[in-house]
Design brief:
The strands form four sheets. Strands 10-13-14-9-8-15-16 form a seven-stranded mixed beta sheet, with helices on both faces. A six-stranded mixed beta sheet has the order 5-4-3-6-7-17, sandwiched between helices. Helix 3 runs antiparallel to helix 4. The protein is built from 17 helices and 18 strands. It folds into three domains: 234 residues, 3-Layer(aba) Sandwich (Aldehyde Dehydrogenase, Chain A, domain 1), CATH 3.40.605.10; 193 residues, Aldehyde Dehydrogenase, Chain A, domain 2 (3-Layer(aba) Sandwich), CATH 3.40.309; 28 residues, no CATH class. The radius of gyration is 27 Å and the shape is globular. By secondary structure, the chain is α/β, with parallel strands linked by helices. One of its GO terms (biological process) is response to water deprivation. It catalyses: an aldehyde + NAD(+) + H2O = a carboxylate + NADH + 2 H(+). Pfam families: Aldedh.
């Protein structure tokens, strides 16, 4: 293994330049633009998942101790659905869209043509390292691009497997994987791309955007933030509690950008909510969750230390009402609930990205909106209530990448909805046709013949021509008639 690493060629700026040059040459042949090429690649991706699912599940377990159900459903099955949706609808997506024309260009016809951007870069993350690496690539392939994938080095087993599988199943002249860490990413970012999609945190996103700005490269940023959950008192508490647990601890043990980050509820309802959490958590994960095989581990020692710091802050450590047990050797932290945490604590001001769930108290449920809007805009926000007016106010008042009422995280599974952030939680969106659009340029095309050449657009300019042009731009038939008869006021 040591000699294999030593013999591996160094990937530097020159390597990245040659890689992009090679991909641009492949793109220039036009093969990625054909429907047949796109269809072949998407079907090959489905075949890859069907044939290699055990290896994918094993890699995800090596990196995160991810339960098989989460790997099979939330990573592999969801990606299969993305591929199949694209295969089913891609021909329709590729068709030019008819556009209306006005009197200004009469007679004419127009359409919007979707064309591939060219050579794109996808920089992935570690928490869903298979899904979040290949799901954007589904859209990039469907749109007809050549692609470089940079998977996360923090999930090394999945990164290595992705490199092998992509080379084995997909067209290696147009789709490539670059493994590595910061030096390799930096070398890639020095190059000119036609689009970059980055999934990760805000700190690295600023570095990616700064690099992209040098080449005027457009970006899609899928970040995160503190996703709130408002819990009203007029609900089915058992169902609500289970759905919050599924979205928090059932999604990679809280290591997900859309997992609930904190709860807001009323002071007189909090204890009832806490009791329900304790009961359901014990049913799901047993009396000793550290031994549960249904909870992912913390990804590495750095993230374990970061989460421990949040728990150990003086003003927070006394607020733990459930859980809090830690196994440093195995990087495990039990589902942990904290009640009435101070607003100025670290845990209420940093994205948690782990199994800790603080509960913030308000006097009345309507106060929750002020709490949410006082911070940065989250990637997702959740509300549990049966009150129609509260739902309406939530939708009208809270700005987030996506909203879900009476559940958590499930909007991710709907391909008809765009997935993306706003403000600090990201920019741009993908999933379903939104993925196709994210990697396409919408080219405007106007068709005209040689008949009806309007004299009014040419010099010499007169008051009559001015009046007629104004009527044309106003779209007024009566105004045009008046102008032609000389009755309009120029």
């Amino acid at each position: 293994m040591t000699s294999e690493v030593e013999n591996k060629p160094v990937f530097c700026t020159e390597s990245a330049k040659e890689l992009v040059k090679e991909l641009r040459a492949s793109f220039a042949t036009g093969k990625t633009k054909s429907y047949e090429w796109r269809l072949t690649q998407l079907n090959a991706m489905v075949k890859m998942m069907e044939e290699k699912e055990p290896q994918i599940v094993a890699a995800l377990h090596d990196d995160l101790s991810k339960p098989e159900l989460e790997s099979s459903i939330y990573e592999i099955a969801m990606l299969k659905n993305s591929c199949r949706l694209a295969v089913k609808n891609m021909k329709h997506w590729m068709m030019p869209e008819k556009a209306k024309t006005s009197l200004v260009t009469f007679p004419s016809s127009a359409e919007i043509v979707s064309e591939p951007l060219g050579v794109v870069l996808v920089i992935s993350t570690w928490n869903y390292p298979f899904l979040l690496s290949l799901d954007p690539i589904v859209g990039a392939i469907a749109a007809g691009n050549a692609i470089v994938l940079k998977p996360s080095e923090i999930a090394p087993a999945t990164s290595l497997l992705l490199a092998r599988l992509v080379a084995e199943y997909l067209d290696s002249s147009c789709i490539k994987v670059v493994e590595g860490a910061v030096p390799e990413t930096a070398a890639l970012l020095e190059q000119k791309w036609d689009k970059i999609l980055y999934t990760g945190n805000g700190r690295v996103a600023r570095i990616v955007m700064a690099a992209a700005a040098k080449h005027l490269t457009p970006v899609v940023m899928e970040l995160g933030g503190k996703c709130p959950v408002i819990v009203d008192s007029d609900i089915n508490l058992q169902v609500a509690t289970r759905r919050i647990i599924a979205g928090k601890w059932g999604c990679n043990n809280g290591q997900a950008c859309i997992s609930p980050d904190y709860i807001i509820t009323m002071k007189d309802y909090a204890q009832k909510l806490i009791d329900s959490f304790k009961y359901e958590l014990e049913r799901f994960y047993g009396k000793n969750p550290l031994e549960s095989k249904d909870l992912s581990r913390i990804v590495n020692s750095n993230h374990f230390a970061r989460l421990s710091k949040l728990l150990d802050e003086d003003k927070v450590s006394s607020k733990i009402v459930h859980g809090g047990e830690r196994d440093k050797e195995n990087l495990k932290i039990t589902p942990t609930i904290l009640l009435d945490v101070p607003r100025d604590s670290l845990i209420m001001n940093e994205e948690i990205f782990g199994p800790l769930l603080p509960v913030f108290l308000v006097d009345k449920v309507e106060d929750s909106f002020d709490v949410i809007n006082s911070g940065t805009k989250p990637l997702a926000a959740y509300l549990f209530t049966n009150k129609k007016k509260l739902k309406e106010k939530f939708v009208a008042t809270v700005s987030a990448g996506g909203l879900v009422i009476n559940d958590t995280t499930v909007h991710l599974a709907e391909p008809t909805l765009p997935f993306g952030g706003v403000g600090d939680s990201g920019m741009g969106a993908y999933h379903g046709k939104f993925s196709f659009d994210a990697f396409s340029h919408k080219k405007a095309v106007l068709y005209r013949g040689f008949a009806c050449d309007a004299f009014v657009r040419y010099p010499p300019y007169t008051r009559g021509k001015l009046g007629l042009l104004r009527a044309l731009f106003d779209g007024s038939i009566l105004g045009i008639i008046r102008a032609l008869l000389g009755w309009s006021k120029a």
